[in-house]
Specification:
Blueprint lengths: L13 H45 L5 E8 L2 E3 L13 E6 L5 E11 L4 E9 L4 E9 L9 H4 L1 H5 L4 E2 L3 E3 L10 E3 L5 H35 L1
């Protein structure tokens, strides 16, 4: 006695399955590209706005600024033909209403306790002073490391301080020039901020001096 007939199943051909997966993958890839194309200009616009505002803050609202590009080991205010300005290292020279330089905004970054800390600071080459500091990017521990941007007393220490900077324990300083009180519980993050500024000043100060010399010579020639 035979049993009931069972439904006959057919395996989906492998080529059809591969084609379906390939089409789905291509569609997903297209959507990702479209989202990127749509979002990228907006991201860049936001980053540019944040940078402009930060430059104004660390240079105490200059009348106008100009970008200096690091090209072949020297700073220049002329962007090389065909060069991408975002791909070159830049500093930003600020001027007052009389077109006199008031300082330079310099960007720097180093690994902190959790992740890379990226900041911008104002610097006066003539006096060797830091004019102000602002954190641009940080993922330091909330409530501890993030005090490098949220602790107003710490941030204020970089307003008109001589370089090189020296980190000291809170209350342990002797009033020496360039001393910065650390943040209790965020020593690594605070020391990273100091290291970034010291390293960038050491690297950029001679380049800024050389640029100023070339500008002075050019003005005398005119």
């Amino acid at each position: 006695m035979s049993g009931p007939d069972l439904p006959v199943t057919q395996d989906t051909p492998s080529i059809r399955l591969i084609g379906t997966l390939a089409a789905a993958g291509a569609l997903a890839g297209l959507l990702i590209v479209m989202v990127h194309v749509w979002a990228q200009p907006r991201i860049q616009e936001h980053q540019a706005r944040v940078l402009r505002e930060a430059i104004q803050e660390v240079l105490a609202s200059p009348a106008h600024t100009t970008a200096l590009y690091l090209v072949d080991g020297a700073l220049t205010d002329q962007l090389p033909a065909g060069a991408d300005s975002l791909a070159l290292e830049r500093v930003f020279l600020g001027f007052d209403d009389s077109n006199r330089p008031v300082g330079v905004a310099i960007i720097g970054a180093k690994p902190g306790f959790q992740d890379v800390i990226r900041l911008i600071f104002g610097y006066d080459p003539a006096s060797g002073q830091v004019l102000g500091m602002k954190i641009l990017e940080s993922k330091e521990t909330p409530g501890l490391g993030d005090k490098i941007e949220k602790d107003s007393a710490f941030v204020a220490e970089f307003d008109g301080i001589d370089t090189p900077l020296l980190g000291v324990k809170p209350g342990a300083g002797r009033g020496r020039i360039g001393e910065v009180d650390m943040i209790t519980g965020a020593t690594i993050s605070a020391r990273t901020v100091i290291a970034i500024i010291n390293d960038r000043v050491e690297a950029m100060a001679p380049l800024l001096e050389a640029y100023a010399g070339r500008v002075a010579a050019r003005d005398r020639g005119n």
